[in-house]
Every structure is written in C-alpha cells, then in structure tokens.
Amino acid sequence: MVRPGAEGEIPRLELEAVEEAQQLTELWWYVSRSTGLVATALAVGSLVFGFLFSARQTGKRLRPAWWLDLHNWLGGLALAFTAIHMLAVIFADLGYGLVDVLVPGTSTDSTLAVTLGVLGFYGIAIASVTAWRRVRSRMSRAVWHTLHLVSIPAVAFGGLHAYLMGTDAGSRAFVLFIVLAAVAGSYAAALRITGLAAERSRSSEQILNSGSGRSDRDGVR
Amino acid sequence: MSQFGLHHVEHVMGMAVSIDVRGGDAPLSALRDVVAWLHHVDATFSTYRDDSPITGWARGELTLDELSDEIRDVLRLCDEVREDSYGAFDINAVHAPNGTQVDPSGLVKGWATERAAEMLTASGATDLCINAGGDIALRGHFAPGKPWRVGIRHPLEADRLAMVVELSGQVGLATSATYERGNHIVDPRTDAPPSGLLSATVVGPDLTFADAYATTVFVMGVDGLRWLAEHPGYEGYVITDEQMTYATDGFPPRALDE
Amino acid sequence: MTVFDDVMTAMYPPPRPGQLLDAPTREQLDRIAELQARRKASAPARSVAKRSTTTTASGKRRHAAHRSRMAALAASISATGMLTAYLAAADHAGASNIALGSSSLSSAATGAQAPAATTPAATTPAATTPATAAKKPAGSATTAPKSTPATTAKPATGGATSFVGGTAQTRWGPVQVKVTITAGHIVDVVALQSPNSHSRSTWINSQAVPMLRSEALQAQSANINTISGATYTSDGYAQSLQSALDQARAQGVTVG
Description:
The complex is a heterotrimer of chains A (about 220), B (about 260) and C (about 260). Chain A is mostly helical and about 220 residues long. In chain A, about 75% of the residues lie in helices and about 0% in strands. Chain A has helices at about 15-55, 65-90, 100, 110-130, 135, 140-150, 150-165, 170-200, 210-220. In chain C, about 45% of the residues lie in helices and about 20% in strands. The chains are: A mainly alpha (about 220), B alpha+beta (about 260), C alpha+beta (about 260). Chains in contact: A-B, A-C, B-C.
C-alpha cells in the first residue's frame, strides 16, 4: 500500500532494476556482435585448415592427426559460437525470434542478410555433425565428402551475412579482417585445387583419409 | 437529443474539461451527473485544497481505513503502476502543492475522465470525447465513418501540433510534458525534473493507465517506450529534447490531411 | 607390458623401500627405464597417425591436438570477451558525445540564415559529404559542438527557405536534416541522413521506431477535433486551440 513519504525523504526506488534489465539486454547485443565475429574467424580458420589438410600441405613438422583434429575442433567451435550468436540475437531483443534465426527467409527485417546467416549456420552444422566419427562412419565416403563440401558455401554465406548485416561492417578493422579471411580462404582453396592432380597420381593417397575411415569403422562395428 | 448532441466546457480541477457527446441517446441529466462527478473528484483528490481527504491522509490526519473506497482504489492503482514501473511512477516522489509528498494527480485525472466517459456510455452515449486538460477519453466516432482526429501539441510551440492521429472506439490518450503546470514530475532517483524528453504521449484502451503510463514514460525517457511496449494495447510517442520523435511500433501513424 | 618387460622385471625386481642397491644394479635399472620411456614415446605417434584420437593407459580418450584445442577455445572465449568489452566501451564513448540533433538545426535556422545566404560556397561540403564534414568541425558560432556548422540556404519561391544542417553525431548515430522555414517558422524538417539501422539505434528502438521528423504542423489547417496536452490550465484555456474548437462546436460548426 502507498504510504505518505516522510518530509524530505525521497524514496530511492527500483528504477535501477529497469536499467539493469536494459544493460543485460545491451550486453547480449554486444555478445551477439562479438560472437558473430569470432564465429566467422573460427569458420574461416577451420576452412583453411581443411583445405590445407586435404591438399597435403600440412608441413613436415606438424603431424596430420593434430592438423585434422584441430580442423574438426575449429569447425565445432565455429558452430558453437554461431549458436551463441543466434541466442544472443534473440536475447538482445532486436526483434528477431527463434523462427527468424532458424527458418530461412522468415525474417521480415533484412531478409537476405538474415537468410544467408541461417543457411551458413546449417551448412556449418551439417559439416560439423557429419565430421563426427560415429556419424561419418555410417555413410559412404562420397556422401560424406559431398556433405562436407557444403561447409564451403556456408562459410561464404556467413562472411556475406557479416558484411551485409554487421554493425561493425563499416569499420576499417572489419574490412581488413574480411579481406584477410577471403585471401586466406582463396589461397588455401587454390592450393587444394592445384594440388588435386598431383595428389591423384600419388600412390600414398589412401594413407590418411580412407585409412582413418576404415580403422574408425572397424572400431565402431 | 439534438443534431449536435451534448457539448459543455466545465472549469474544474484547475483545468478546462471539454465534454462532447456526438452520438447516442444520453440525456442532459447525464451531462449534469458528469459535471457533479468531476467536482466530487476535485473535492476528494485535490492537492491544492487543505480540506480534501487526500491532503488529510497525506498529513497523517486520516488513516487508510477512514478513507473512502474510491480513494483506496486510486491509491491501489497508483501502487500497482509504481511497482510495474519500477518506481518511475511514484506518487510519493512528487512535491504536492499542499506541502506533502503525496500527489496521485498523475493518475487521478485520467481515472476521473475515464469514469466520466463510462457514466456517459452507461446513459446511452455512443460517440463522445472528453478532453480534461489534454487527457482525452474517446468512444465511438467523431461522425459516422469518421474517426476522431486528435492533435498532439507541439512541445515548444503552443499553437502548433507535433502530430495528428485518428482514433475510434474506446481509446484514452494522455500527454505528459515539461510545459504542464502543476505536474510536478520528478525523477525519483534525482529529485529533479526528468531530462531527455519534451513530451510523452500514450494511447491505450483505458485512460487511467494511459495517463499514468505517459508520466512513467516521460520519467524514463526514450527507453520508457521499451517498457511501454510490454503493455499490450498501449502505444507511445515521445519527442526528445533533440526534437527527435520516437514511437512504439503500434502507435497510430500520423493522420494525413484529407 | 611386453615379454621383454616381464623378463627384465623378473631379473631385476624393483627395489623395496629402504633396500640398498649396488651401483651396477642401479645403472641397469636406469638403462631399462630409459628404454621403456623411449618405446612409450614412439608407440603413440604411430597409432595417432591412423586415428585422430588415442587411448591412454587410463582408458581416457585423448585428442591428438588436445593442447591446441584448449588454446583455440581459450583464444575464442577471450576474443569474445575482449571484443564485447571493446564494442561496449566504444559505444558508450560515442554515446557520451551527444550532440544536438535537430535542435542544432533550430539554432542554424535562426542564427545562420543571413550568413549562409551570403556565402553560398558553404553549400556543397555539408550537403554532399556529410561524413567527412562531420569529422572536421570548422569554427563558427552558429552550431552545437560535433555538428558541422556549414548550413545551406536555398532560397525558394514563396518566402520558404531550406537549410541543410551539418551532420550531427547523436546518440543514435549520424543525423543530418533539412529544415524549411517560412516567415520565421519551421514548417518542415526532413532527415537526409539517419542512423544506420543496424547500429545501436536498432537495439534501443527495437520497439520504438525513430521517425526523425519533428512535425510542426499548423494546427489551424490540421483539421482536428481535439488536442492532447494542449490545455492544462484553466488560465491558458481561453487562448488555446481547444477553446477555439469548443467555441466552434458550441456554435454548431462542424470542425473536421
């Protein structure tokens, strides 16, 4: 019940609660931006590692197993950070709901940019899940490879999404970052493509990929 | 009822209350009842009077039990909005003219006007507008097929409008602004008039809350619109001291001139 | 443990605590330990070449790039934290530089009319390159800080004059407005440049849409039935628009 305030006593009330709630929402918004950027970096990193690995460009000192493991890990991290990014976007109260971030084309605001991001998420999710040993062992190498290649457009979509949508897309640092990412990705892709012919002729081709696939399958069954 | 319905301007509660009934079968006695009601509210809730129950209670001369049900209802509503607004709307945080720190007029004006509109509709009026010093309770239409066109005063220029909206049905509209006299809005945190906004307007189904929410949003500033957006049916429009205007998504768009 | 190990253990049982060993025995034990360590070091490397994970003696799976994984995780999390902090700090630094948005216009409108009209050279920079103009404030007394003083007077027919204000860095982002003045009154305000829809304004206005247009309408021509916020006091009522509307209503004149 309301009581008359004592003379000279101004009630200090819970207006701070409003501010705290708003600060929390604001924090989510900053988290959505930073996780988006970090997820992009991780996805590009995983892509580069993947290209270099399959191009047999892992150098002499680094073990291929280490390389492959880190490639998978970066992909998984990219997926996780993308998921946090999506949650943060919802919590940040920007007007995007669960449907907007999960179903392509449903967002009414910046439809193209959001859709690219959603498709990128699914692409990375497909590549990451099928890279998981138990899932991968249940499909043929051709099927797995096709699904795994989905990650390439997915990363491109993600980068485009960041460029179209990103609050920080106008900053010089972001432009530098996206250019570096594009250069690194293209360089690795070029190495992979030019290395394909040479690799095919090599007799040692099976050592790493099918070799690991076979032993994994044996282990599961 | 005549072709022009009922129309009356009553000076009560320190302001001009304009009553305009345009449709329905309300008798002239209904208008008299409304005028009597407004004077009753003034006598009960006026913080300018030493003999009003609200002043007596604020000074501790009356206990809560000695107050009438309607005063307790109003205080309960004030308390509801205070909790809902995290203390931004607080009848204890104002300096009332009677020297106390209780002033429910941020809600009473809207409450009394809403009740007056209810009285008229209960007597058969279907289309009406009561403008109590800028707080407006509407019912129905201005004319068949024509909504009420309500101007919102420009906060800096008294003879100009910032916005015109078209409204119909059961609607309350209230504006809280720096230019209001006697509206001692202070930010409970600073004990100073809130800065950032020149005026805040709230539209909603019940003028009681539209009035209180307008005060709340005015205290909270632009961010108050986010708070308001969580109240279904209520929409807001503010003008900042940078003369930028912001509105919630559902605020009626500016009515274009015919 | 291999057969080799078993044999060696049988031949040279591990010393019980406190048991004294002679020098040759200790030498042999050291040698065996060294051999075993070398074998252990080389064995996992081969198995790892086949699979990305291997099983340690404790039965726990260990990833080939375990350390690098943890490093990548730590780097990602700290990068997120640092970016979040940086973005928040950058934003709040920007928010503290609140310059007047449209109100800078009114000062431009009232004070800058004559000078702007006489120096039409000031026209282009403000109108065409607001971004660069905003970064280098030129000295002039007519505008608020952080907004470009250059204003443009474009004499139009009928006494209406349009001013293009400089770009003001507001809390919501850069804003540039054009104001039209007739007979000393602002009749139109149009936002030429509004804040990026994906910047902080999106957050703050997810439910509050900035209209960026303060409409000072002529009440007389607005065709309205009633006015909100216009007549609070009885004293002011007599001169108010609401009073005029009420009088017209009382005389049976349909307004609106």
